[in-house]
Design goal:
This protein is mainly beta and 454 residues long. It folds into two domains: 7-285, Tachylectin-2, Chain A, CATH 2.115.10; 294-451, Exo-inulinase, domain 1 (Jelly Rolls). The chain has one helix and 38 strands. The strands form nine sheets. Strands 25-28-37-30-31-32-33 form a seven-stranded antiparallel beta sheet, with no helix packed on it. It has a seven-stranded antiparallel beta sheet with strand order 26-27-38-29-34-35-36, with no helix packed on it. Strands 1-2-3-4 form a four-stranded antiparallel beta sheet, with no helix packed on it.
């Protein structure tokens, strides 16, 4: 089982799924086309016919196709997409065979409200109070420095075919882009998701704003890409992002567009206007259904400190902390456990793919006193660059659940089913995992694991 794979090693770019009749339809960029995969369990994906290919020379989408959305109306499916930095449309009666609309493009920059360099990523929904359709798109306002011109553009239509541009829905003048926007109504609020390096969100009481930043603004960390298009399946919002590749397969390489699918996430919306994320139930159920392997603690030997084990509880008891290696665990695995750190000023480290002498590998570090979680390489002087980090409120003695999905070069960590970190671990593909407390005591309970295969 490889939780990050698409069929035949294919990779994904920006995703915009829909859910129909128990089936997840994943429309996604797979340059130079927009691909289409389907799944009933969010793990096994079947390739369907390509949804959109670039047009011939002179056609509105001849220069390339990119992110869009799919909506259903009166038994037909309308697939809006980006073509040559303008909005195009293709139509279908069955989600499998698509015919491009003869009147393309249906929307493009007018050179007045919006600039023409960035006009893309449509999201369409029905807004009943106005008895019309709204289209959001990523754009740039005119008359503002490009580095601060990013906005969420707005167009409206009575019939999904004829669109009129309106002033931006949101133009904060805080960055160059507001790509892949989506507006959702939930808990009597309107939630605006978009891309600005990370996946970010804002909240308002009206679909017209004003949109305000909540206490936590980001979903995931920087290598978790295109998480701004959640889909409603009738009971929850699910997002299907991808994991960015790094140049030269190097932990510290520059970003390269596209990569394997990430762990599908369920988004939970809270009354304090924050959004939290956790692995979808289907993924966890399928992992736990795998044959149960042996005891994770087989062959363990304390490297430092003093450790006790009773039933499902393993405890580090020395006040200076200690290190316990787990040689029975494979390099690629799903790992979950409940962690309790006894003191606010002590730390916990989950060692990943380390050498027995601890001179190479990776470590996930939790620091309650600074409310920071980070993932980075291990070196002799502990000075390697942080690969992923974020702020997470941690409380001494209060247990939290840690879930780790590690397969090949991809590592995704979920903390207390609230937030995640995503990183590429190309450099070290094998090694020993371990548990480590520093400057205090702590405990690990209910440790469980399952092997992954490439």
């Amino acid at each position: 089982m490889n939780p990050f794979a698409l069929p035949s090693g294919q990779f994904s770019g920006d995703t915009f799924p829909i859910f129909r009749d128990g089936v997840w339809h994943l429309f996604h960029m797979m340059p130079p086309v927009i691909a289409h995969h389907v799944s009933r369990d969010l793990l096994q994906w079947e390739a369907w016919p390509t949804a959109v290919t670039p047009g011939a020379a002179g056609e509105p989408d001849s220069g390339g196709v990119a992110t869009g959305c799919v909506v259903e109306h009166a038994g037909r499916y309308y697939h809006f997409y980006t073509g040559n930095q303008q909005i195009c449309l293709t139509l279908s009666d069955d989600l499998a065979q698509w015919t491009k609309y003869a009147g393309n493009p249906v929307a493009r920059s007018d050179g007045d409200i919006y600039g023409s360099d960035n006009f893309r990523d449509p999201f369409v929904f029905r807004y009943e109070p106005e008895s019309c359709w709204w289209m959001l798109f990523g754009a740039q306002t005119r008359g503002v420095s490009a580095q601060r011109a990013g906005c969420v553009g707005l167009a409206k239509s009575p019939d999904l075919l004829h669109w009129k541009l309106h002033p931006p829905l949101w133009a904060p003048h805080i960055g160059p882009h507001a790509d892949c926007p989506q507006l959702m109504q939930h808990l009597n609020r309107w939630w605006l998701c978009y891309l600005q390096r990370n996946t970010r969100y804002r909240v308002a009481v009206s679909p017209s704003g004003p949109f305000r930043r909540p206490a936590t603004r980001n979903l995931g960390t920087s290598l978790l890409a295109a998480a701004s298009r959640p889909v409603w399946d009738g009971r929850r919002w699910v997002v299907l992002p991808f994991v960015m590749r790094l140049q030269n397969d190097d932990d510290e390489g520059a970003w390269e567009y596209g990569g394997p699918l990430a762990i599908p996430r369920q988004l939970d919306f809270h009354v304090d206007c924050t959004i939290t994320e956790r692995p979808v139930e289907e993924m966890l159920a399928q992992i736990r259904a795998l044959p149960e392997p042996g005891d994770a603690y087989t062959g363990t030997q304390p490297l430092t400190g003093s450790w006790t084990r009773a039933g499902q509880r393993t405890e580090s008891t020395h006040p200076d902390g200690g290190t316990l290696l787990l040689p029975a665990l494979p390099a690629d695995l799903y790992l979950e456990f409940t962690l309790a750190i006894a003191d606010l000023d002590s730390d916990f480290h989950l060692l990943l793919r380390t050498s027995p002498d601890l001179l190479r590998g990776y470590q996930l570090s939790l620091h309650p006193s600074t409310a920071q979680v980070s993932l980075r390489s291990i070196s002799q002087w502990d000075t390697d660059r942080v690969l992923a980090s974020r702020s997470v409120a941690l409380t001494a003695k209060k247990p939290i659940t840690v879930r780790v999905f590690l397969c090949g070069s991809i590592c995704e960590v979920f903390l207390d089913d609230r937030c995640s970190l995503t990183a590429r671990l190309y450099r070290w593909r094998d090694g020993i995992h371990g548990l480590e407390f520093r400057d205090g005591t702590g405990s690990i309970t209910n440790l469980a694991w399952r092997p992954f295969t490439m």
